[in-house]
Structures are given as structure tokens and as C-alpha cells.
Amino acid sequence: MKFLVDHNVGCGVAQALQADGHDAIFVGDVDLHMSDADVLAWAVREQRILITQDADFGALVYHSGQPHVGIVLLRMGGARRAERVAVLRWILTHHAVDLPNHFSTFENGRLRIRP
User: Fold this and answer.
1) Which CATH number is 2-114's, of 1.20.1250, 1.10.260, 3.30.1660, 3.40.50?
2) Which of 38, 94, 97, 106 is surrounded by the most beta carbons within 10 Å?
3) Three-state secondary-structure class, residue 75
């Protein structure tokens, strides 16, 4: 799968996804100060599912009507990289086919997937 990993998720997560055979790009490798709107437009342009910890993307999608090809919002607070990687691997193992074109939120051990 193709992913765009937001700067707040970390380059280590992008590297773990790459090691698992995914096409993952870390936003911070291009521009740490890129606006959320630009990040979302990039993900759409390259048909990448965005992985973020920034709830502002929900406002862009649901309130401003910005298009997306899939967003995974990790609401994991101060979770370590290993925890984020483990959660993403679980999500991809059990729900990979559900992620495209959906806004998915992982919080408190649960994944909510909505259009």
C-alpha cells in the first residue's frame, strides 16, 4: 500500500512500513512545516493513505470538504514508536481493505472506520 506519514507520527514509523514492503513517504523528509492542506493535497495527488496524529485533518475533510484517499488518525497521545508501529501492523493485518477512501480513527484500542 502507499502511505504518506505525517511528521507527528515519525520517520521511524515510515521506515517500519517500508521494511514491511509498503511504499511509505515521511512528510518531514520533504518539509516539516508543510501545511495540513498541502499534506492532504499531496496524499490525494499521489493516491496515498495519510497516517497522522493530527485531528485537524478531520476538520479539513468533514467541515471544509477536502478530498482524501484515506486517512488513519492515531489518537495515541505519547505512545512510543514501537507502539505506533504495532498498532499500524495490526490495522493493516485486519483492516487494510477497509482503509482506502475512509477516515479511520484508532483510539483506546479500537478502530473506527467511517466514509
Assistant:
1) 3.40.50
2) 106
3) strand
* Residue 115: closest CA among 64, 45, 58, 52: 58
Q: What is the pTM of this model?
A: 0.96
Q: Which residue bears the cell 518531514? A: 28
CA torsion through residues 57, 78, 8, 83, sign: negative
Contact assessment for residue 109 and residue 91, using Cβ atoms and an 8 Å cutoff = no
pLDDT digits (tens, 9 = 90+) for 49-75: 999 999 999 999 999 999 999 999 999
For residue 65, how many other CB atoms are within 10 A of its CB? Answer: 7
pLDDT on residue 90: 98
| Number of Cβ atoms within 10 Å of the Cβ of 15 | 15
Q: Three-state DSSP class for 37?
A: helix
Q: For residues 112 and 36, give the distance between their C-alpha atoms in angstroms, rounded to a whole number.
A: 22
Domain ranges of the chain: 2-114
